[in-house]
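Supplementary notes for students who missed Thursday's class. We covered one full example, reproduced here. Read the sequence, then the structure, then the short commentary at the end.
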Amino acid sequence: MDGEVPGQQSGPMDSFDSLVRAEFAPQTTYLNTATTALLPARTVVAMRDAVARAAAGKPSDMFADVEASRQSFARLAGVPASRVAVGSSVAVYSGLVAASLPEGAEVLTADGDFSSLVNPFHVRGDLKVRSVPLERIAESVGPQTALVAVSSVQSADGRIAGLAALREAARAHGARTLVDVSQSVGWLPLAADDFDYVVTIAFKWVLCPRGVAFLVVPEDLGGLPPLFAGWAAGEQPWASTYGPVAELARSARRYDESPSPFAYAGARHSLALIEELGVDAVHAHDVALADRFRRGLAALGHEPVPAPGSAIVSVPGLGHRQGELSRAGIEVSDRAGNLRAAFHMYNTAADADRLLDALCAG
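Structure (token representation):
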């Protein structure tokens, strides 16, 4: 195969490629962003500087880093920053939504969805959790459904949820929606305002260090109880460090976890890079490479899990080859028996072709 990515043109893409080359220099064929992303050079420098300042007794202003990250993510999500809480875990925020539901409420989920999203509803013990195939989730919403919790893109195989149909079904029946965008934000455009709650970790497609997560809530805060509110969730954090917090933040910040300063020192720069590149450009690049890989798989006689338009390609029955591929310098993952390849901004046509060549030779 030649080295050209379908749909690639000169002009804006030249600028895209130049910016990516300035930030990334992978030493492997890295096709594992669905597990964890490569860090941009600017992020690594910022984190090193933050650690060095802390070691010298001159720590950086962690709240400035947190607020810059919050603002940047809010722009990517298309909502005001006042609706964005910052933390470190999807499970914490999913648990917060679970805690807001009345006893006996029905929660609709997709079969095999990621545990951090769905498990908090199961461990409550007094909710009616109903799981259906992803393709049937919109049609399965009924008048008894209090909440639908689903990942926008499935971790195990890259399938994309029909969120438009789900949104309409939920509205028709008065159900709330919780969408986990951990496997899509950064490459798939996001309109968080279409849903009640949106949650994500940030160490995958938006290139942040581990320890960064975001929650988008409605303008009225969606009735979520501030169960784990600490000093950082106060309207004036530095005046909220002793005894009960006198006043919780009047925005989504009341759901903030105490931030990891080094993680957010880097996160603001990773998020800024996504904004500079543009999600639409990242989407076009990533999906073109994934489609190239799918065509190559067909030529080899392999049929991936149907996931049109996804940057994640999963091939049933080949997950066992992950170890040998890693030893050959090709990083993919084994998920639910699938060989999962994830294509992102720092990948090229040569990466897709090298994986195809390795699969052909095996």
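Commentary. The two ends are 19 Å apart (CA to CA). Residues 1-10 have pLDDT under 50 and may be disordered. If anything here is unclear, bring it to office hours.
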